[in-house]
Hints:
The chain is mainly β. It has a single domain, classed as Maltoporin, Chain A. The protein contains 3 helices and 45 strands.
Amino acid sequence: MSRTLLASASVLALSSLAWPGIAGAQQKEETTVLEPITVTATKRVQEAFEVPATVAIVEAQELQDRGIASAGELDRAFVDTNIRSRSNRAYTNVTVRGQSSVDYYEPSVQLYVDGLPQDPSIFSQLLPAGLDSVELLYGPQGTLYGRGAIGGVINVVTRKPDNELRVDTAGALHTQGGDASLLLNTPIIDGVIYGDAALTFRREADQYTLLGSGQEIGGTDDLNGRIRRRYAPDDSPLDVMVSTQRGRVDSTEEQFVMESMFNDRIALPIDSRYRLDTASFGVNASYDLDFATITALTGYQDRKLDRTTLGFQTPEDQTTFSQELRIASDPELGNALDYVVGVYGQRLDFERRTPLIGQVSQQTIDSYAIFGDLAWHATDRLDISPGLRFDYEKARARADGAVTIAGERSFGGVSPKLGASYALDDEWRVHGLFSTGYKAGGFTRNVTPENIAFTYDPQNTYNGETGIKYRALDGSLEASLSAYYNVTKDYQLFVGDVYLKYLQNAGEVTAKGINLAFRANPTERLGIAGGLGLNRTTFTKYENSVNPGIDYTGNRVPYAPEFTANLALDYAFDLAEGWGQLIPRAGMTYAGSVFFDETNTIGQKGFFLVDLGLSWKVSEQVVADVFVNNVFDETYAVYGFTEATYGNLYQLGTGRAFGGRVSFKF
């Protein structure tokens, strides 16, 4: 089966890549040129086409057209990606290329906003107002990003405050809730200081009916506010932006249904609710030296999660302070060698309380790193990109109550990388990459009397990738095809009873697969974007101290679908002069089957989600939409576990939603 799928995908990929030559000849006068896309997640400005790795970029307009408003919905735009709220959005599971975030405190895919690392608990909150684009670096990114970036990095890029007075506002109402956003940008001192303020709100309607009472439950309110000030005088090399942000999520989404009540969405009447408060402060400063740019990034985040699930209360607090200083060359100079070199430091303080057993667990983790990444333009066609990172981490843990712990552990890691890309001609480029990922060891944060062990060892991932990219000379189509194979040693996995899970090493995991992605404007009216991913991620050597007599070797890793695909289509019809355009749209997403635990006994079969919409683009400033999301009202599980009393319990995805959206820009 896997070989057949691989062969079919390869034929499709080659057909797609061959198409632009034919389409270009037939439609040359009608094509819409796609501008070259640059990526900043590599910590220096590069054309995505030239990066010796798989990179995907989705611009803000496309996300808005598809109704994608949060980072937790980005798997509708990025292939070989699966993002699902696991029990609640503070513990969102992110899987890229089979690397799933089974450790929800340190997800395998890291989220950054304008270069600043984000607390994992806000992964599924709303994307920021003033969004410019979202970038995804596939595969281990240990050299540039260090701990945790095993599956990749998602970098959210916003439009900085500038000298233009503008107001952007948008709102949507639908049968599953609604959302609204407001952004005000204004010069404060003309040509010197600028600022913006943004407010976003989302209401998600109740998704379940409580067993017995018939009460509707499972809704969420998500409110975020942000203020930014930017000092960037005209013709000055200095650019400093300061941001502050607050957010609050109130939710009863942690509801669970028994298998017999799956399709009826009837939830167990057991207290489950939470409040998540987050606050962040950031400084993004850069200085242009002409030959290079020095960048200093300072971030502070504070989160408080007051959570009760199935009657079990486990409030948590976490603060994170990070500092990065780097220097990156100016690629516009055309030097033979481009580089980025930097240092990074972070302190994380964490506390988890379990009032039922009088348990308090605390941790302080200090991380330090030195990193460098080079791009040697050996010839006009050949680029060679080595990189190296040194990490050092010290973890101190203390626990009081039913279990008493006091300990300290230190870890060091080296993360090398070597990539190369070669231009076959002006349209075709091939690349190869060896990259690594590293997660330090430490102390489990879930301390209970049920733990068999309280510490775990570092995890290391070794990845090989090869691929080919195509970019038509007229810019009408871009496509990429890549294959990868990676091995993870000492895989870190949450084990034990569902109420009392804790982190341990579980042996060796292997992931392999292929990705195909493309975007095109074959005519000035038609837009197409899509891709597919085939993946197989399994335990190739299972070792678990909790159950040493049980061997899950050969089982699939939880939350890693074997097949994902997405496709987006739109076509523009011109209306009478002054009335703009009418644009029908269709979006299709397929998520393959997944298992929710390493036993592979509970999971979700593969399913399609179809979204339809119609946009009336009156002008660049005024757009109105009507839409239907999840057209066929697919009922599917995003999380599940086996419980001793009730059997298999599931948490469900959102059902069908009808609605409308309007946006104005002044």
